[in-house]
Every structure is written in C-alpha cells, then in structure tokens.
C-alpha cells in the first residue's frame, strides 16, 4: 500500500506509524469476525459462547496495549481529536460505566465495558497515528476479502469446521467464522466496501468482478437472505450517492429516502394508533414480503421474554453486559423456557433497552443523529467518503434488528461503526488543519 495519497487538494497524508496502524486495522477487523478466543470447533456441534477466556484475553489484550502505546506516542493529536468525538458516544460510555452501581452481576458490566473502551482505543489510535484519504476503506476491504477467500478454501478443505453440521442448518457455510450469520455479515459488508472501492477507482473493474463472483458464491452457500438484502441495500446507497444514474446533482438518494419515509411513517403511525405494537407486528409485513418466517426463525420467542425482563427496569436498565451471562446468570430463566441457549436477544435495540433502559436508548438515538450530522457536513466536501459512512450506518441500524451488534463490542458491525465515528471526527479535524495551514505544506500536523 502506498503512503502517497492522490486524493482531492487539501488531503495530505500523515505517514507516521503507517504500516503499524494499517496492521492494527487489519488485525482488528479479522479478530472481530472470527470466533472469539480462536474457538474453532465443528460448526453447529459446539457451544459458540464456551470460549476460553484466557485465549480471548490473549487475542485482544496485545491489540489494546498497542493502541494505547500509539495513542501515547501521538498524544499531541489526542486532545484535539477527542474534542470532536461524538458526545453521545462519550455519554453512552459514561452511562454504561454508571450501570456498575446497579448491575445484578457487576463483573459482566466490567467485562463488557472493558471491551467497549478497548475497541474505542483502537479506533482512536488509528485516527491519531497516521492519516490518508480512503485509508480505512482500503484496509477494511482488504481484510474482508481475505476472510472471504479463506472461508471459501476452508469450506472445501476443512468442511468439518466451515460447514454447519447441526440438523437445522446442515450443509450451510460458515467459513472461517463461527456461523452462517457471521459469514453473511462479512460478505454483505464486502459487497458494500467493494462497490465503494470500484466507484472511487481504488480497485479495477476486473478486481471488482472477481469480488462480486466470490460474494455471489458465498451468499448461495451461506443462504443468508437477510445478509444479501442488507448488503445489496448498502451497496445501492453507495452507488446512488457516488454515481447517480439519473440525477448527476446527487438528489436521487434524497428522493429514495423521502419515498421510504413517505411510505414508512404512515404505516408506523397507524400501527401505533391501533395499540402498542410488538416487534413482530412491525416487522411482519416486511419479513413476509421477503419470504421469511414472521418469527424470524424463533427470534420473537426471545424478544417477548427479554421485554418482560426489560420492563422490570425500564428507565435505567439492568446493567451493561450484565444479563446474557449463560446458565446460572440473570438470563437463565429464558434459557430454561427455550429449547436452546441464546447469548443475545438477536435484536440490539431490545438488548440496549434491557441493559441500559430508555436512557441508553436515548443516547443511541443521539449518537445516530450526531453521526448523521457529521455525514451531512462531509457530504458537500467529500461525497464518496460521506456515502460509505452513510451506507455503513444504515447497514448497522438495519442489521441490528435481527442481530445484537450496535454497541456490542468485538462484533464486526460495532467495530466498523466505531471506526466510522472516530474517522468522521478525524476528518473534521483534518479539515480544520487544512484551513489553518497552506495547502502546499508537505505533511499534516503532528507528523
């Protein structure tokens, strides 16, 4: 990867710790996708959460330590960057830390909070260590493509560890990930970042064609309708934003979003007026239109039970990361009522409501609105970058309906949305530096 950046005027690369910070992103994306603690076991015949905690610490502690060292070495940029960080991200971390005082199992909160802070440290280190336009997107695409290639090889070379063996999912691909759902996240995000890279000239048309073929083969093997739809949706947003086929001025995306709101808001209002809706009531018509089970493969069984728990503490929640702790923990009664043992609600919004209450949900809404504000400010300066961040945000919000990922650290969507948030803040800081210094300056500040 070249240190030079041939982007728009005013974007000057800061190449201190260039290879080190690039490696940090690659390792982080890969670690967030593969089984925690390198827990590769026959797919579907083992408990995905029975992770050796020592291995999990060995996996992540060196990465967090490296991030801390890089932040220390680049401390001159640390304070200016933190000033521009999404304030609701800071508020969420503080509220999660405060939940220690009322969590039923404080050790669960400490563990989850440490993971969140460690993930944020990695993102901050990447943003202060070096800088270049489209760098995060290039590195992420490289990591995702590598994961897909290795997954395809494993399906044929080591099917015992890459193909589901359980009765319900037998024959479906998981690749190098722990399940077909995680593989679906990787190939759908790969489609989105690949579309961005092709439209911005980061990869050739031949490379993009190969990536599309790889994604198509894996999507068929994993048979993940949800991942395919969200991936196509995100790629379409990128395409309509960067290279609109009808409206060169770029208003096509705004028209599409307006149409969605025009259809969605009356539907939501009618549902609310007819009585308090359940999650299945709201999502039922959508899932039926996609040919999916209205219960979303039994997820509504979990949702209804977690909501019962959440109503016991609707304002402050039961403690960040202090509910899904396995048999013997606060979620044990749900395990006993179901025929299987879940370790999340398979709906991130319900999980946040259960763990941090309406206050936590409010902070998430604030985080999203501030994130949209940052994207809007960037839209008129660097539309391609703004487009991929917008697509990633919408992807995360949609996928969070069926999988708990938003503010669930060490998952791939959460990791990338944290990278996105800090990168937007770093972009704003870079714009400030560009206005303050002559464009001819050889490097960005703090080189």
TrEMBL record:
Domain O-antigen ligase-related: 212-364
Family annotation (InterPro entries): O-antigen_ligase-rel_domated, WaaL-like
Topological category with respect to the lipid bilayer: Multi-pass membrane protein
Protein localization: Membrane
Domain of life: Bacteria
Keyword match Lyase: no
GO cellular component terms, A-Z: membrane
Chain ranges passing through the membrane: 20-40, 76-98, 113-132, 139-163, 183-204, 211-240, 252-273, 352-372, 378-398
Keyword Transmembrane part of the UniProt annotation: yes
Primary localisation category: membrane
Keywords, sorted A to Z: Membrane, Transmembrane, Transmembrane helix
Protein name: O-antigen ligase-related domain-containing protein
């Amino acid at each position: 990867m070249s240190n030079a950046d041939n982007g728009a005027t005013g974007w000057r690369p800061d190449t201190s710790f260039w290879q080190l910070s690039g490696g940090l992103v690659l390792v982080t994306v890969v670690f967030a996708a593969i089984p925690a603690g390198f827990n590769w076991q026959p797919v579907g015949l083992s408990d995905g959460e029975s992770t050796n905690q020592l291995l999990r610490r060995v996996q992540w502690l060196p990465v967090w330590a490296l991030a801390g060292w890089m932040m220390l070495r680049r401390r001159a940029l640390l304070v200016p960057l933190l000033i521009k960080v999404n304030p609701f991200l800071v508020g969420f971390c503080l509220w999660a830390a405060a939940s220690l005082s009322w969590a039923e199992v404080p050790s669960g909160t400490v563990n989850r909070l440490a993971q969140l802070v460690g993930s944020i440290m990695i993102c901050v280190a990447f943003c202060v260590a070096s800088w270049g336009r489209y760098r995060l997107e290039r590195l992420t695409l490289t990591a995702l493509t590598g994961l897909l290639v290795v997954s395809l090889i494993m399906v044929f070379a080591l099917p015992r560890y890459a193909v589901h063996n359980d009765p319900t999912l037998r024959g479906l691909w998981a690749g190098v990930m722990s399940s077909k759902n995680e593989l679906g996240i990787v190939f759908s995000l790969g489609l989105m970042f690949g579309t961005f890279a092709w439209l911005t000239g980061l990869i050739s048309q031949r490379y993009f064609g190969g990536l599309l073929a790889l994604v198509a083969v894996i999507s068929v093997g994993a048979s993940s309708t949800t991942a395919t739809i969200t991936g196509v949706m995100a790629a379409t947003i990128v395409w309509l934003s960067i290279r609109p086929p009808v409206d060169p001025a770029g208003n096509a995306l705004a028209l599409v979003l307006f149409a969605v709101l025009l259809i969605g808001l009356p539907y939501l209002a009618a549902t609310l007026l007819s009585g308090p809706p359940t999650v299945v009531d709201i999502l039922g018509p959508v899932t039926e239109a996609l040919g999916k089970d209205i219960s979303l493969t039994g997820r509504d069984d979990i949702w209804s039970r977690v909501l019962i728990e959440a109503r016991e503490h609707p304002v402050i929640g039961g403690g960040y990361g202090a509910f899904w702790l396995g048999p013997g923990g606060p979620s044990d009664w749900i395990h006993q009522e179901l025929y299987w043992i879940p370790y999340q609600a398979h709906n991130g919004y319900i999980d946040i409501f259960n763990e941090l209450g309406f206050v936590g949900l409010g902070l998430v809404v604030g985080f999203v609105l501030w994130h949209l504000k940052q994207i809007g400010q960037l839209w008129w300066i660097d539309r391609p970058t703004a487009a991929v961040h917008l697509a990633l945000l919408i992807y995360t919000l949609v996928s969070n309906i069926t999988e708990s990922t938003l503010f669930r650290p060490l998952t791939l969507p959460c990791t990338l949305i944290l990278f996105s948030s800090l990168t937007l803040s770093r972009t704003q800081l870079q714009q400030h530096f560009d206005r303050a210094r002559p464009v001819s300056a050889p490097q960005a500040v703090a080189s």
